[in-house]
Amino acid sequence: MKVGVARETAPGERRVALVPETLAKVQKAGAEILVERGAGLGSHVPDSAYEAAGATVVSTDELYAQADLVARVQKPSADEVARLRSGQAVVGFLQPLLDPRLAAELAAKGVTAISLDAIPRTLSRAQTMDALSSQANVGGYKAVIMAAEAFGRYFPMLTTAAGTAKPANVLVLGIGVAGLQAIATARRLGAVVKAYDVRRETKEQAQSVGAQFIELKSVADATGEGGYARALTPEEQKAQQDELNGYIAQQDIVITTAQVPGRRPPILVTAAAVAGMKPGAVIVDMAASELGGNCELSKAGETVETDNGVIILAPTNLPASMPGSASLFYSRNLAALLVTFIKDGALAIDPRDEVHTSTVITHDGRVVQAATQKLLEPAAGSTTGGSAA
Fold first, then answer.
1. How does pLDDT run across 93-122, given as a tens digit for each residue?
2. How many domains are there within the chain?
3. Among 127, 237, 321, 325, which one carries the catalytic annotation?
4. Are residues 202 and 232 in the same domain?
5. Confidence class for position 382, pLDDT limits 50, 70, 90
6. Which listed residue (228, 237, 321, 350) is catalytic?
7. Annotation says 350 is catalytic
8. What span, in angstroms and rounded, lies between the C-alpha atoms of 265 and 137?
9. Same domain (yes/no): 257, 327
10. Which domain holds residue 293?
11. Which helix (H) or strand (E) holds 3?
12. Spatial CA neighbour of 283 closest among 264, 302, 260
């Protein structure tokens, strides 16, 4: 079986799917590694490092012609989809719940699609494969670094001959992997950190990394499935926002991380809340995307400064800004996943394996993941169906 490592072409994407350190694990499982020329340059990995690890560096045409499975970080572009052939497999962050039509297109081409953003996060054996968590960890760290750079004052309390600088007040909204890393990083920089999440179970987690947990009286516990928060009702959202506004107004830095898979991120920082913040305060909206963000005034991929002097950062791909660490973690996750699919030197999908049934989106010319099927039903009708096999 030949596993091809594709060069990422999405704007601003500097990560690579596999780094030399992890090739041996995939090779030991029975795979030959092909690497598209220049695939690792964005992460400062030269072609020679892949060759030293036993991979063969090939052209783009050779990669897509020879590889049985194409490994990547971002979903393929239209040109890259056109290069894929029937019987081939592709693996990466394919985002089928956000882009179900891509899944339908891959199914129509006879391509097996495996998506890392569908890893079952509550399954203990899948933790080493959980690329969403590893990349969120990188993002949470970088969000605080960005906030510190944009903030016009110190994070820690400093006593100098010129007097004492007060520590920054930081509020982290959303206590998942990204939120916990943001809390820990802000605390290491010396800030006073508060945190909030609609899931009451996260209180001890936030406290364990040094944050004071905010308990709102207006919203009941909103723990959902798969380790995520459930979507709040409109009434709950309004009550939550009204009570949160008082806390937000006191902060120097607000970092938001709350997302619901496949849906628009919840608004946690309203325009009214921003209007109540101090000049020079900074918001980093980690949930910003084409669907929106946690801050009502965020513009995905842009920096906005409001009339009252609040700076709103809405980065859309923080892990790519730290490609070395992000690629290493992603590569380890991907290698752990790939070895479960390789048997006797070929791709083998086990219908009894929960990891396989969760991550395989298309197979044998069909969309087989139930959630993606449902999104395609009005348009695709009877062209989708079944389950991963």
1. 999 999 999 999 999 999 999 999 999 988
2. 2
3. 127
4. yes
5. very low
6. 228
7. no
8. 19
9. no
10. 140-316
11. strand 2-5
12. 302
Residue 218 a catalytic site member: no
Domain harbouring 307, CATH code: 3.40.50.720
Question: Does residue 64 lie in a domain region?
Answer: yes
Q: Which of 115, 133, 134, 135 is catalytic?
A: 133
**Known catalytic membership, residue 228:** yes
Find the catalytic residue in 7, 15, 72, 121.
121
The reply to whether the predicted model has a pTM over 0.70 is yes
Q: In Å, how far are 66, 76, 80, 165, 234 from 83, measured between CA atoms? A: 11, 10, 5, 58, 45
Within this chain, do residues 300 and 272 fall inside the same structural domain, yes or no?
yes
Catalytic residue among 130, 197, 252, 285: 130
* Residue at 134 is within a domain: no
Asked if residue 199 and residue 81 are part of one domain, the reply reads no
Q: Is 196 noted as a catalytic residue in this protein? A: no
What is the rounded CA–CA span in Å between residue 115 and residue 63?
20
- 337 shares its domain with 237: no
Say how many CA atoms lie within 13 Å of 194 toward its Cβ. 16
Please confirm, yes or no, whether 130 is among the known catalytic residues.
Answer: yes
